[in-house]
């Protein structure tokens, strides 16, 4: 199981990084989302993996999974949503301002591109 | 305490002139002068004790971990310099009041002057060398401001830049030297360092430290070959020149050599570097000074020469030479400040500084002339003025100095230096004040300046005479105390007096006076003889070096910062990978640990397979953006499932609701953004990115594999599990951690979320201006879309669902403290329920029924969380301490009410507000782009309506 999680994190990071290095904003946003998954699961896995031991206190149960990474990751998920939303809006704004969605933000050509003929 | 005040007063007082200038120039100067006077009085109150041998010390902790503390100490050396800085500073302040014209911003001048003064006093009173370095850099910066005070003059700006570049570079070298020194001794306290001369001189790092520190001293004190900045700094107003180049700035390097004398001197390295540099500087500076036609230029090079003299004396390394050096510091400060001020008077009264146009000025300006002649005579070393005394001591020491087995070289060169010194001093006397007027058409008709302008130099000239006549009485105690502090041991046998009998030094002095006069008589001939000599122009060399350096740094930054974000990101990722790899190789360990692993269940294997496929597909198909988005949704779903499977129900709930909101958000974005990514990456770029990302993936995967196969060492989690119920009053430990144990973290996080939402608001609000608005106005909706804008089934379903989903939200919120749920998840669930309404029934219809201000909601949430936290203070507990109680309600039964619920409510409100604000603003852009008015009707076809209303016009492609 650990191998599956580790390889998933590695794969998510790999794909996320590749998309992060693309030249257009949308793949970068997607890449960032993939990396967010990887980072969140990474942090979560710092508490080691357990099955059927949720950190909900029950009478007579003594073994629980590590609650601390979960708490940290929970806020991280919400924050990464905030970040994604911001970056999406930024890329829309940049697209509207300069007429293309290249990450370098250089206005290229006439604003005719804005018509979105793709 | 008052010691700290002496240093701080100029800094604190520096605000005064800026304010007082509104009350007039006199008020401004008076305020400035009072600050300095107060500091001087505080210093003088300690002077008798210090001269008696006492050392004052005061210390505050600043960053003790770094060895950086605010420690000041006042001994004889500090007293001498602080007196010079504050005393001459006070005279300069008075003088500047009359020197500066009405057009000069006087407030600014005094602000700079006080800042500089404070930095100088800081240098001479610091006990901690790191603190000293801070003040050292401050003098470089504030002197830059002072030298460039007349910022309309290009010479002023260039001179200021050159001074900053040279002294700043030296300062950097000195930082390194001081750090080495502190490292050798193990303490950054000067008093500790001064105790460890043997340790330092025995260290292999002694020579590097010495050279680095001397670089700092030589640049600051304008020693050859760094002397060239000083004459260019003469573009400053004369009060600045008088201050910087007599008593302060250039003396900082001298001060440091004196300060470090006990630990650094006495070695051959010290002797050959310092004494030689001093000797060369003394002779060279004096030679150039003879031929300077600019009055201040002559004084500038004479300053260079005299600094060389003092440096040489400290370089000799004998206690007697150190005494002579200290004495000459006092004498030079008095006559040179007076001379600069006189030069300023001449400049001010005649309108020019060209010596060739002067002559016979004594008749026109008798007071200024007397001051100038006496001071210049002292500079020449004429009996009975103070300059004679210390020059005599210098020649005496030079007489005994052997340089590379040559016992004639140093005496000869010292005499030559003295000859030149006499020549330029006499030139100052004879060509300016005496003889016949050479130019009748001076820009102004000269006459003596107002009292306030000649009083300060006159005061100094009185000192020049008094010290000369009664050296033992006037300067003796100060010289003794200072020399004692410099030498750090027994004082040598010495006697300050005009007459020492027929000594070699007296002979050398006499030769100097005679030959100096001869040179002056032959001045015209010498001038034409040397005119054609090619001499290196330091300024053009410096400018050339600067141009090359700028070009070099431009080359580097242009290549590193070419504006390509892709390149920056790739470099950052590669750097992170490199750091990780180097860490791995620095401590080679088996990648796998020995922890017992979990079994792989078939569903887990299937999910993993699905994840692998979707991940790879999302990369290969990323040009089709909608498909990629779909795949990302699948990945999010698998991650949520993984959380459930791995005992994290709260995370699963959060992830899945965030997923919904994110996908909606990105769909909205794709309505505006292009739906496809063009294929534009070159194969080489792709290969590079594949290598980078594979390395990153392997690194991260390997790291977590190494972590997961090892046991968790001591963790604080057990504490949370044990105390969640007892202290937090909840059984859902994750939620208790969020709202209680680590509530402060959560508090910060909801604020971040709120800020992100408000930034989105700001980004969209301004979209109605400029280029963006033009593009939106001419937007062509070209893609095919559903004919059903608001499908009836969906409208009906969402309306039925709304109360149910809200109920679920409330339920999840309430139970959050004990079961999976809580403010974050409830907030997301409620947001999703509301977003469904917007999607199904249209923005306008929903907005008309949802009279909620989402900004307010964010603010309310943060405030609610804050109030919950603060209310703990009322109970006398720390911020965010939670309390709980058991409440019994009919029907519902007994349940727990924790104050943390108020906090969770804050979280809930912020999350709902932030999510809704972000989505609402985004949809606003969509509506602008599509030129659709807000729809009023809930659905395209309302079956309950009595009459069929025509549907809104379709937007077919």
Automatic annotation (TrEMBL), chain A:
Kindly list the residue ranges recorded as spanning the membrane: 6-21, 28-51, 71-96
Taking the record's annotation, the residue ranges forming a coiled coil are none
Q: Does the keyword Cell membrane apply?
A: yes
UniProt-annotated location(s):
Cell membrane
What's one Pfam family the UniProt record gives for this protein?
Answer: Oxidored_q2
What superkingdom heads the lineage? Bacteria
Regarding protein family, the annotation reads: Belongs to the CPA3 antiporters (TC 2.A.63) subunit C family.
Name the UniProt record assigns to this protein: NADH-ubiquinone oxidoreductase subunit 4L
Organism of this sequence:
Thalassospira profundimaris
The organism's lineage is: Bacteria, Pseudomonadati, Pseudomonadota, Alphaproteobacteria, Rhodospirillales
Automatic annotation (TrEMBL), chain B:
Q: Name one GO cellular component term.
A: plasma membrane
Localization per record: Cell membrane; Membrane
Q: Which residues form the MrpA C-terminal/MbhD domain?
A: 610-674
Start and end residues of each NADH-Ubiquinone oxidoreductase (complex I) chain 5 N-terminal domain:
65-110
Q: Name one GO biological process term.
A: monoatomic ion transport
- Which positions carry the signal peptide feature in this UniProt record? none
Q: What UniProt keywords apply to this chain's record, in alphabetical order?
A: Antiport, Cell membrane, Ion transport, Membrane, Transmembrane, Transmembrane helix, Transport
- Molecular function as annotated in GO: antiporter activity
The record places domain Na+/H+ antiporter MnhB subunit-related protein at: 794-916
Query: Which InterPro entries does the entry link to?
Result: CPA3_Na-H_Antiporter_A, MnhB, MrpA_C/MbhD, MrpA_C/MbhE, ND/Mrp_TM, Proton_antipo_N
Residue intervals of the NADH:quinone oxidoreductase/Mrp antiporter transmembrane domain: 126-404
Residue ranges of every copy of the MrpA C-terminal/MbhE domain listed in the record: 685-765
Q: How does it sit in the membrane?
A: Multi-pass membrane protein
Residues that span the membrane, as ranges: 6-23, 35-56, 76-96, 108-125, 131-150, 162-185, 205-230, 270-291, 367-388, 408-430, 451-476, 496-520, 568-588, 600-620, 627-646, 652-670, 690-708, 750-768, 792-812, 824-845, 857-880, 900-920
Instruction: Report what the protein is called.
Output: Monovalent cation/H+ antiporter subunit A
Q: Which species is the source of this protein? A: Thalassospira profundimaris
């Amino acid at each position: 199981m650990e191998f599956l999680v580790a390889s998933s994190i590695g794969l998510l990071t790999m794909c996320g990084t590749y998309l992060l290095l693309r030249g257009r904003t949308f793949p970068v946003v997607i890449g960032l989302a993939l990396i967010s998954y990887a980072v969140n699961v990474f942090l979560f896995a710092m508490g080691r993996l357990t099955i059927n031991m949720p950190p909900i206190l029950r009478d007579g149960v003594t073994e629980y999974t590590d609650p601390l990474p979960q708490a940290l990751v929970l806020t991280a998920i919400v924050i990464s949503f905030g970040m994604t939303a911001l970056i999406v809006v930024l890329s829309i704004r940049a697209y509207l301002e300069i007429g293309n969605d290249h990450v370098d933000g250089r206005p290229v050509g006439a604003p005719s591109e804005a018509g979105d003929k793709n | 305490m008052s010691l700290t005040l002496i240093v701080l007063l100029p800094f604190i007082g520096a605000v005064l002139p800026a304010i007082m200038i509104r009350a007039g120039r006199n008020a401004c100067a008076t305020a400035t002068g009072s600050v300095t006077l107060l500091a001087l009085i505080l210093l003088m109150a300690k002077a008798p004790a210090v001269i008696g041998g006492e050392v004052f010390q005061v210390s505050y902790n600043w960053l003790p971990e770094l060895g950086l503390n605010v420690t000041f100490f006042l001994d004889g050396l500090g007293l001498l310099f602080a007196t010079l800085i504050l005393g001459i500073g006070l005279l300069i302040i008075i003088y500047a009041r009359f020197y500066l014209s009405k057009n000069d911003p006087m407030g600014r001048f005094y602000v700079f002057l006080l800042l500089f003064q404070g930095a100088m006093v800081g240098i001479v009173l610091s006990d901690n060398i790191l603190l000293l370095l801070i003040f050292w850099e401050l003098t470089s910066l504030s002197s830059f401001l002072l030298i460039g005070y007349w910022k309309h003059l290009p010479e002023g700006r260039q001179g200021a830049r050159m001074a900053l570049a040279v002294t700043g570079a030296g300062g950097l070298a000195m930082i390194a030297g001081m750090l080495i020194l502190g490292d050798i001794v193990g303490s950054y306290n000067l008093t500790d360092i001064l105790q460890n001369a043997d340790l330092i001189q025995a260290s292999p790092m002694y020579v590097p430290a010495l050279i680095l520190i001397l670089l700092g001293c030589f640049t600051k004190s304008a020693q050859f070959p760094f002397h060239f900045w000083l004459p260019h700094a003469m573009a400053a107003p004369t009060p600045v020149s008088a201050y910087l180049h007599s008593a302060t700035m250039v003396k900082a390097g001298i001060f440091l050599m004196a300060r470090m004398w006990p630990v650094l001197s006495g070695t051959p390295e010290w002797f050959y570097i310092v004494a030689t540099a001093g000797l060369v500087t003394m002779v060279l500076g004096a030679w150039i000074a003879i031929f300077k036609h600019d009055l201040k230029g002559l004084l500038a090079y004479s300053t260079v020469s005299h600094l060389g003299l003092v440096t040489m004396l400290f370089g000799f390394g004998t206690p007697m030479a150190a005494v002579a050096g200290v004495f000459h510091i006092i004498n030079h400060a008095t006559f040179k400040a007076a001379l600069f001020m006189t030069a300023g008077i001449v400049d001010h009264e005649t309108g020019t500084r060209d010596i060739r146009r002067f002559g016979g000025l004594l008749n026109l300006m008798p007071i200024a002339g007397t001051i100038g002649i006496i001071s210049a005579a002292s500079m020449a070393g004429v009996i009975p003025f103070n300059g004679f005394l210390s020059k005599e001591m210098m020649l005496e020491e030079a007489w005994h100095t052997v340089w590379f087995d040559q016992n004639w070289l140093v005496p000869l060169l010292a005499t030559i230096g003295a000859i030149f010194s006499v020549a330029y001093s006499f030139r100052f006397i004879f060509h300016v004040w005496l003889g016949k007027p050479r130019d009748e058409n001076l820009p102004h008709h000269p006459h003596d300046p107002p009292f306030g302008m000649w009083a300060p130099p006159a005061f100094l000239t009185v000192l020049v005479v008094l010290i000369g006549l009664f050296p033992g009485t006037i300067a003796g105690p100060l010289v003794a105390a200072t020399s004692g502090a410099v030498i750090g041991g027994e004082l040598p046998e010495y006697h300050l007096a005009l007459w020492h009998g027929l000594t070699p030094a007296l002979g050398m002095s006499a030769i100097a006076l005679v030959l100096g006069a001869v040179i002056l008589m032959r001045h015209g001939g010498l001038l034409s003889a040397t005119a054609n000599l090619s001499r290196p122009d330091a300024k053009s060399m410096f400018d050339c070096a600067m141009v090359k350096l700028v070009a070099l740094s431009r080359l580097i930054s242009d290549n590193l910062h070419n504006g390509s974000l892709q390149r920056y990101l790739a470099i950052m990722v590669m750097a992170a990978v490199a750091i990780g790899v180097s860490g791995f190789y620095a401590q080679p360990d088996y990648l796998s640990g020995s922890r017992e692993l979990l079994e792989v269940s078939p569903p887990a294997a299937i999910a993993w397979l699905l994840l692998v496929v979707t991940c790879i597909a999302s990369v290969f198909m990323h040009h089709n953006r909608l498909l990629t988005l779909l795949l990302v949704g699948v990945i999010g779903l698998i991650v949520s499932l993984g959380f459930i499977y791995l005992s994290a129900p709260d995370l699963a709930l959060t992830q899945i609701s965030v997923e919904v909101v994110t996908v909606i958000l990105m769909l909205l974005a794709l309505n505006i953004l292009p739906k496809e990514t063009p294929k534009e990456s070159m194969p080489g770029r792709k290969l590079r990115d594949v290598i980078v990302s594979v390395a990153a993936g392997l690194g991260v995967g390997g790291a977590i594999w190494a972590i997961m196969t090892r046991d968790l060492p001591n963790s604080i989690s057990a504490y949370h599990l044990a105390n969640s119920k007892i202290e937090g009053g909840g059984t859902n430990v994750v939620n208790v951690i969020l709202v209680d144990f680590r509530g402060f973290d959560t508090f910060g996080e909801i604020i971040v979320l709120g800020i992100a939402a408000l930034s989105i608001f700001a980004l969209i609000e301004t979209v109605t201006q400029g280029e963006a608005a033009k593009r939106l106005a001419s937007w062509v909706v070209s893609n095919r879309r559903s004919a059903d804008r608001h499908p009836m089934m969906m409208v009906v379903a969402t309306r039925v669902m709304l109360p149910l989903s809200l109920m679920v939200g409330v339920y999840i919120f309430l139970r959050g403290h004990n079961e999976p749920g809580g403010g974050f998840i409830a907030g997301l669930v409620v947001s999703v329920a509301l977003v469904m309404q917007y999607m199904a029934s249209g923005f306008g219809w929903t907005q008309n029924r949802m009279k909620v201000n989402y900004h307010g909601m964010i603010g309310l949430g943060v405030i609610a969380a804050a109030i919950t936290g603060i209310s703990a203070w009322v109970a006398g507990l720390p911020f965010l301490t939670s309390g709980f109680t058991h409440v019994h309600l009919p029907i519902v039964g007994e349940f727990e009410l924790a104050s943390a619920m108020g906090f969770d409510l804050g979280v809930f409100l912020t999350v709902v507000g932030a999510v809704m604000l972000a989505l609402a603003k985004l949809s606003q852009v969509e509506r602008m782009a599509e030129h659709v008015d807000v729809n009023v009707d809930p659905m395209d076809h309302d079956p309950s309506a009595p009459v069929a209303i025509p549907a809104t016009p379709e937007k077919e492609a």
